[in-house]
Structure formats: structure tokens, C-alpha cells
Amino acid sequence: MPTTLLVVQILNGLQLGVILFLIAAGLTLVFGVMDFVNLAHGVQYMLGAYLAVMFYGLTQNFAAALVLALATALVLGLLLEFTVFRHLYDRDHLDQVIATLGVILFVNQGVKFLWGAAPLSLPIPELLSGSVVLMPGLLYPVWRLVIILSGLLVAVLLFVLVTYTRVGMLVRAGASNAPMVSALGVNIRRLFMVVFGFGTMLAGFAGVMVAPILSVEPGMGDSILILAFVVIVIGGIGSIRGAFLGALLIGLVDTLGRSFSVDLLRLFLDPSAARTVGPALASMLIYLLMALVLFIRPTGLFPAKGR
Amino acid sequence: MVALQAHAASPRWSADILAPVLIFVALAALPFAAVYGTETYVLALFIRIMIFAIAAVALDLLIGYGALISFGHAAFVGLGAYAVGILGAHGMADTLIALPVALVASGLFALATGAVCLRTRGVYFIMITLAFSQMAFFTASSLAPYGGDDGLTLRARDTIAGYAIMNGERAFYYIVFACLLATYLLCRALIASRFGRVFRGARENETRMASMGYEVFRYQLAAYVIAGAIGGLSGFLLANSTEFVSPAYMSWQRSGELVIMVLMGGMGTLYGAIMGAAAFLLAEEWLSGLTEHWKMIFGPLLILIVLFARGGLVGAMDRLRGMRS
């Protein structure tokens, strides 16, 4: 029995990890290439989820809702880039943080205004609902497996794009030394538009994928954004590989910590103390991990070269 | 971030004396004027403003003078508040116990986290201060014996040496006022001292300060601890004013609001942070009275302030003066 529980929790951790990766990937590239702190990146995740719910309501078709939601999320993301973010690239981090905080306030409230404050939900596509038997005595929801697989697929795709294509080469070069890339005649603003748009789509995709299993509500992007920041800080800013490994690490540590901390603490403490300390410790765990990583390596585990 | 360095230049120093004097005279006189309005409402609003101003002044010490953009300052406020709440729950509701505990707890938290945070720079510093405040937030949320997510209600405001002095709204107003004045004067003295010169020097050129033989890290850590302890003072007052303590006091939105106050007022002036706290909370009060969706107005307003109003309120005042002369 404990083995099946462990396997289930590892899979849940992986699922959280790939979702975090989808958000952190865009964030780390935008961060790495343009040195731009975008707190409003979590907003794209929320918009992805809301748009999927809206388009599903209109079309009653998950695939159509997915495509329409991604396209709309991209358009909205580029609109934000054009109206607000573009004017912030030359500013210091403080200005960027505050202005993107303003975007968060606006969009969170805007979502409440349009769709109401009550959580919405999206049904799992018929074909992929239900559970499968992974091991004797272990049932696991198909949709969660779909999330894990699609996240891994995106990771592979990103890896190929970044490692083997010309745009990918420019992105890596930009993350190492953006002024130099610009001096070599590359239109860095346009490169950034591409990176930003791509990141927006990835975050939107993450939002659509989790919409069937989480409640879709205003502010859902904020908490996951902070986790994504923890991921990229642990992984090293500007590094896709760092974002991937960091995301899986955080996903697993957080999920396993939450499910086993009380039991583990029982080995040392009496049960009532363990029940009090356990949850507190579990929610602190990833931040302790981050502090530890930064204490040993102040620029993360896999910093982009040249930084 | 380096907008307001030219303190020695002549047009500025008169403003640096005059503006804070005007602010504190106005705050001191307010209760007398408030008699003509809805007194309790005005007093409560300005008590709140001054409490947040205390935390914002301390944050300005870090951001404006040290370029240390702490995005987790609300954690110290929350720790101070929880010191009051937890001690109160155990029947120790006196300022003589609660205030030192609040200061020491937030100061120690600043010492422990600052030792890690200050090894990093730039964005990493923003993120790790944020992470530590989230840690404090989640810890507070899981404190089941002390209300957990729901927070905890105080039985009454703390007494001072056994006397229930803080129960009078006007007396409490002047206690908060005195704390704000003391905070401002302390920070100002600190900035002007030799310590402050090293701290400011590290903002301009850390390597140079280091090569001159100053251990920059120690100075920054000391400033971080002082700012944290002042945050604890603000939390002590906040808990007593609302008679309620909640994890929401430490949320990252709250930290963001403190940074916004500093930015709105104008960084690196200390009194700007007081004006920023007043501007932010008055705007919140006014806009939320207009519509439930006031954040849809405030969000874009914030973006416009960042894009077009560099130097915040203090910068705007300077520009006005510049136009006149």
C-alpha cells in the first residue's frame, strides 16, 4: 500500500512539475533575454484557463476551446507587450515589478468583473476522462497522465527548438549577452516579441491543461507565479534546462513534502506535535530549498553562460 | 533608482527640512481638525496611514538608500503583529512585553534571512526576499493553535505597564504618531551618520567600498535588521489598532503595496514614504468607495505612475518648484 501511495504522489509531483515548467520556461527566457521581471506572467496562465472555459461554453469542444484559447491568449499577451511591457525594458527592476503588479491588479479584477468571483470549472474531455490501472491496486486519472505527457512533449520540443534552430541559437545568445547579439545586427526587439509570444502561449497552455482539475478563479495565477519564480531562481535565470530540472524538483519536493511530512515527523515527534509542525514545514520546504541553493550557489544551479 | 542623489544641491535641502516638518505638523494637528468631521473615521484612517508609513520609511531605507529591493517587507510587519497576537492569547497583553518581543522577533528573522538574501543581488534578491516572506506567510497560515488561515482576534489592545492607555482613540493616534516621528528621525540620523555613508556608498559602487576596506555585507545586514525591526514595530501597532492578526498581513500583495508606497512617494527621501503611504491608502479609500472594481482603475494608474511620474510625489514637487523659479 505505501508503494502505491508513493507512486501516486510522485506522479502528482511530476504533474505539478511540468505545469510549473510550462510557466517557468517563458518566464526564464523573457527574464534571460530582456532582463525583464514580469510578475504578470501568471496572468497569462489564468487567462488561458478562463478563455478555455469561455470557448468551451461556446463550442462544446475541448480541442476547439484549446486552440481558440491559445490564440486569444497570444493576442492578449502581445497586446500587453505592445501597450505596457515594451516601455519597461530599459527601466530598472523596481519599475518593472511595480508596473507589472499594476497589470496583475487590473487583469485579476477584470476577470472578476467579466466572469464573477465564483470559481468556474471545465469538464475533462470525454475521451480522456476516467482512470487507468497503472499497477495492481493503483488507479490514476487519465487526464493527469495527459498533462504529464504533454508537458514532457513541450519540454522536448523546446529543447530541440532552443538547441538546434537558428532562433534558438539567438535566444541562447541573447540570454548570455543581449547587447552583443544586438550589436551583431540581430533585431533584438523582434526576437523578444517571438520569445514573449511563445512564453505567453506556454503559460496559457498550462492554464488550459489544469482548468479541468483545478478551480478556475481570479488570482489563480499569483500563487503559481511565485512558485515559478522559485523554480527559475533555483534553476538559474535564462536557462531552459535549469527551469526544467528546477520545476520537476519543486513539483516533487512540494507534493511529497505535503503528503509525507506528518508521517516522517512522527518518527521524531509525538503525533499531535507532528500534526502541527508537519503542514507548516511542508509549505516552507521549497523556500528552504531555494534558500539553501542560493546560499551555496547565488546564481542558481544552471546559470546561463556568460552571466 | 539613482534619481535622487544630489542631496547636497541647494534647492533640495530646504525641501528636505521643510517638507517633513510640514508633514509632521499636519499629522500632529489632524485630531484637532478631525473634531469637525467624523472624528473616529478620520482618526482610524490616519492611524492606519501612519502605521503603514512606519514600515514604508524603513523599506525606503533599504530601497532608496541601499538599492536593496526587498519584496518581503510585510513579513516583518506580520511577525510584529503575531508577537502581539500570540502573547495576548497567553495572557501577556502588555506593551512592555509585547513590544520588545515584536522587535526582537522581526529583527532576528531579518538577521537570519538577511544573511542569506544579501549574498545575492538584483533580481535574485527580490525573489529570495519574496520567498522568505512567503515562508513566513505559510507558517502563519498553518499555526492552527493561533487561528491558522482565519487569523486571531485580540481580546483587547495591549496595556502599557498595566494601564489601558491605547484604548483611547486619540491617545493611540499620538502613540502611533510618536512612533512614526521616532522612526523617521532614527532613519534620518542613520543615513547622515558614518554608517549611512558607507551604506549609501555601497549602493553607488560596492566594489569600491569593499576595496576601501569596508565590509559592505555587515553594513547591509545591519540596515536590513534595523529595517526589519521597524517593520516589527509597525506590526505591533497594526495588531493593536485592528485588534486582529491574520496571515494576510504577510501576503506578498502586502509587500508589494509597501514597495508601491515607497515608489509613489519618491524613493530615497524617507518623508516621501510617508506621503506615499498616505497617497496609496487615501486613493484606495476613495476609489473603493467609487466602485467595487476599483483595482481596475488603480492598476492602470500604477502603470502610468511608473511610466510617467519618475521620483513619485517628491519628484513632482521638485518639478513644480523648478517650473516656478
Describe the structure in your own words:
The complex is a heterodimer of chains A (307) and B (325). Chain A has one domain (23-296). In chain A, 75% of the residues lie in helices and 3% in strands. Chain A has helices at 2-34, 41-59, 62-83, 93-115, 142-164, 166-183, 188-210, 220-235, 240-266, 271-296; strands spanning 131-135, 138-141. Chain A has a two-stranded antiparallel ribbon. In chain A, a hairpin with a 2-residue loop joins strand 1 (131-135) and strand 2. In chain A, helix 1 (2-34) packs antiparallel against helix 7, helix 3 packs antiparallel against helix 7 (188-210) and helix 8 packs across helix 9 (240-266). The N and C termini of chain A lie far apart (47 Å). The mean pLDDT of chain A is 87. The two termini of chain B are 26 Å apart. Chain B has 325 residues and is mainly alpha-helical. Chain B has helices spanning 10-34, 39-66, 74-89, 95-117, 122-141, 169-192, 194-204, 206-211, 216-242, 252-265, 271-290, 295-308, 312-324; strands at 152-153, 244-245. Chain B has a single domain (39-324), classed as ABC transporter involved in vitamin B12 uptake, BtuC (Orthogonal Bundle). Chain B is globular and about 55 Å long. At the A-B interface, helix 4, helix 8 and helix 10 of A face helix 5, helix 10 and helix 12 of B.
Give the SSE layout:
The complex is a heterodimer of chains A (307) and B (325).
Chain A: H1 2-34, H2 41-59, H3 62-83, H4 93-115, E1 131-135, E2 138-141, H5 142-164, H6 166-183, H7 188-210, H8 220-235, H9 240-266, H10 271-296
Antiparallel strand pairs in A: 1-2
Chain B: H1 10-34, H2 39-66, H3 74-89, H4 95-117, H5 122-141, E1 152-153, H6 169-192, H7 194-204, H8 206-211, H9 216-242, E2 244-245, H10 252-265, H11 271-290, H12 295-308, H13 312-324
Antiparallel strand pairs in B: 1-2
Helix pairs in contact in B: 1-2, 1-6, 2-6, 2-9, 2-10, 2-11, 3-4, 3-5, 3-9, 4-9, 6-7, 6-9, 7-9, 10-11, 10-13
